[in-house]
Amino acid sequence: MKKTATLPVHCRNMIFDIAVLGCLLAFLLLHLSPGLLTLDTMAVGGDTPAHNYLVSHLREQLFEHGRIVSWSHDWWCGFPMFQFYFCGPYLLMALLGCVMPLNIAFKLVSVAGILALPTAAYASARIFKLPRPVPILCAIAMVPFLMTTTHTRWGVNAYSTLAGMIANSISFPLMLIFIAMAFKDSVEGVFRLRTSLLLAVLVATHFFTTIIAMLTICILPVLRPAGARKKACMVLAAETGLGLLLMAWWLVPLVARIEYSVDFGTDWNVRLHEPFPAFALWLMPLAAIALYCAARSKATAVQLIAWMLLVSSAIFTLGTTLSPVFVNVRLWPFVFFALLALEAIGLGLLLEQRKGAELLVLAVAALALTIATPTPEALLKWSKFNYEGLERKAHYDVFAELVEPLSGTPGRLAADYHSDNDLLGSERIFEAVPHLVDKPILDGGIINSAAGSLYAQYVQTETSDSPAGWPELVEPSSFNMAAATEHMELLNVKHFIARSERVQSWLRESDKWQLLKSVKGWELYELMTHDGSYVSIPDHYPVVVTTRLWQRVGLEWIYEPSAVKHPFILLKPGTPAPPLLHEHTGDLVNKAGAVITDEHVSDNKISFRTTGLGLPHIIKCNYYPNWQLRKGAKHLYMVTPCFMLLYPESEEVELIYDRTAPDYLGIALSLCAMSAMVCFIVPVLRKRWKAA
Predict the structure, then answer these.
(1) Domain extents for the chain?
(2) DSSP for residue 392
(3) Which of 26, 275, 523, 608 could form a disulfide with 599 if both were Cys (CB 3.0 to 4.6 A apart)?
(4) What whole-number distance in Å separates Cα of residue 364 and Cα of residue 344?
């Protein structure tokens, strides 16, 4: 009799794993509305509208000016885009936008982290050399991890991603692979360039995953035998050092300019154990089994995951005592992941070498897709809402008729933060205005990245019934449209979209605002007290205030309505004051005959002509050290709330946004790291060439 050919065991195992991974991927993809992912419409939902502008701005700056970190004039009265936020996912979107519509590139990348996580968990477990069926069980565990409804804004899970936490979602699978690679390199005592490159990508993708990854791998040398610790330490130091140096072009100016960012967010009133789904608590004995087996066999990989659980739990509990950035709930996904991973490992160790293990794995997968994900229809509904896009919303004509005609008009746009805006796709839908039309707005996204968010968010508390939130440094106001009007004139707001009946009623009765148009309950108003120019001469000579707490002083200044006409120059200790200041402090400015013309304000250049030589000129754009005077004046100062001030010495004034010493130092360090890479790669390639 002829013997029938059979596949080797490892091939059958691989086919089984691929089939299960394929089913997990299909399950997730079906709940992300795949038919809408390729629809050329602007994704909405939660904070997502703002993220569309991140991509379009990056694409413009990258391909027209060769910049990744750049200035954005369109949010927060100007801020350094991507200096305090993560460019990685948006850079990928911009590049993909070269071969497909940008809207589709945005959608595909936005769901990439969700779809990649099960495979990344599987691959990292394989790199850890955990026995079968542990890797596939780790992949299965990622489905309830992604589908949990415990939270929708803490990061990583599908709901957080649809709410706009795209970078966080993409960074998590990268983190898992990086940790596994670092583990492998430390065990083998071999430096690998790919691990350094992966770290650089991780740094460019998100802060929290980078921090947890670094804190996790730092224990690897300790877990090695005494004789191998030095080698492991040297390998990890070289890999992490090179990875960080590759990102020095971003990290060095970030550290140097950190005072221009804003602390935003506080701890939630949540205890560590409260958000865990019931199934995760029931399965905790499996995590205990994993830890017991690891202790007996000294399984370093399991100990490493246990260390991640411990570290993330500690930062959840104590993080804000170290830094305001460590908001507790942002660490909870790492705690949840580590617990699920340990439970999957415990179950896998019980099933190791057992007959029928594949059938039991399939049963676990079925349970994970049903019991552990009880409301997948909610994710499907939300993804449909997001990915059908702004253009398919029933109220899209509100946006089209009120916003689109504002393209190219003077001044900034502010909007009433109102729950009915969700009918357009998001309560924050107007943050996408600069993405779609040429019109700067007062608000924006990524609040942490802009000092101007302090003052814009304060104004929002004056104008909205239910403001979105504000940085901790801000003392919110009650509703006060009279004060808000003064502040919006200060901040060069020319147009306002109102939805609240209270706001609309006040604006109709005001002689300072003119109703331009009303569509389905939304109303567009124009502020008639100014012409929307960004450069002006104040009524009074500014008063100098020497302080390091310029953000706090700027807020205290704006809280006082009578202070708006009396600007403060905010000088750091040791900085010389303008020579004319001592002669004219507090006096009225004689503006007779002073005319400002040819004003040009963009992301890379500000210029104007003036006949008011020697008089203080305020540019209603936020101060930042990268703005450099090229002609017309000798010094640039910060003036309240956070604007730029200069004293022209010639009629033509020009500023450009340029690199400074921290930028050049960071670039130089990154170039050194790239040179080191070349020195490492060339001998390897020569050796392989000779061997071939």
Answers:
(1) 115-375, 390-527, 535-658
(2) G
(3) 608
(4) 10
**Cis before 324? omega within 30:** no
What's the confidence (pLDDT) of residue 352? 83
Between CA 149 and CA 280 the distance in angstroms is 13
SS3 348: helix
Q: What is the pLDDT of residue 5?
A: 56
Instruction: Identify any residues that bridge with 627 across adjacent strands, giving them in sequence order.
Output: 657
Q: Residue 600, Cβ neighbours under 10 Å: how many?
A: 12
Percent of the chain with pLDDT over 70: 97
**H or E stretch including 88?**
helix 88-96
Q: Provide mean pLDDT across the span 277-285.
A: 91
Please write the tens of the pLDDT for every residue from 179-195. Answer: 999 999 999 999 999 99
Q: How far apart are CA 339 and CA 306, in angstroms?
A: 8
> What is the pLDDT at residue 581?
61
Q: Which residues contact 241 (CB under 8 A, 6 or more apart)?
A: none
**Contact assessment for residue 220 and residue 182, using Cβ atoms and an 8 Å cutoff:** yes
Residues 6+ apart with CB under 8 A from 3: none
Model confidence pLDDT, tens digit, residues 507-528: 999 999 999 999 999 999 999 9
Angle subtended by helix axes 661-691 and 248-256, to nearest 10: 160
pLDDT of residue 687: 73
Q: What is residue 396's three-state secondary structure?
A: helix
C-alpha 420 chain-centroid distance: 25
Q: How far is CA 489 from the centre of its chain?
A: 30
Rounded distance between C-alpha atoms, residue 147 and residue 157, angstroms: 6
DSSP 562: G
Label residue 276 left, alpha or beta by phi (over 0 means left) and psi (-120 to 50 means alpha). beta
Mean pLDDT over 434-444 rounds to 96
Residue 656 sits at φ, ψ, to 5 deg, of -130, 150
Residues in Cβ contact with 578 at an 8 Å cutoff, skipping those fewer than 6 apart: 544, 569, 635, 637, 647
HEC per residue, 483-541: HHHHHHHHCCEEEEEECCHHHHHHHHHCCCEEEEEEECCEEEEEECCCCCCCEECCCEC
pLDDT tens across 544-562, in order? 999 999 999 999 999 998 8
The DSSP secondary-structure symbol of 163 reads: T
Mean pLDDT over each residue of the chain, to the nearest integer: 92
Give residue 634's pLDDT. 92
Structure tokens, 296: 């007996």
Distance CA 56, CA 37 (A): 18
Q: For residue 206, which of 240, 147, 155, 257 has the smallest C-alpha distance?
A: 155
Q: Determine contact, residues 491/440, Cβ cutoff 8 Å.
A: no
Rounded to a whole number, what is the distance in angstroms from the first to the last CA of the chain?
A: 45
Region 30-51 average pLDDT:
95
Which of helix, strand or coil describes residue 401?
Answer: helix
The predicted pLDDT at position 1 comes to 47
Question: For tokens 């542990």, what's the residue?
Answer: 134
Q: Report the C-alpha gap between 62 and 71 in whole angstroms.
A: 12
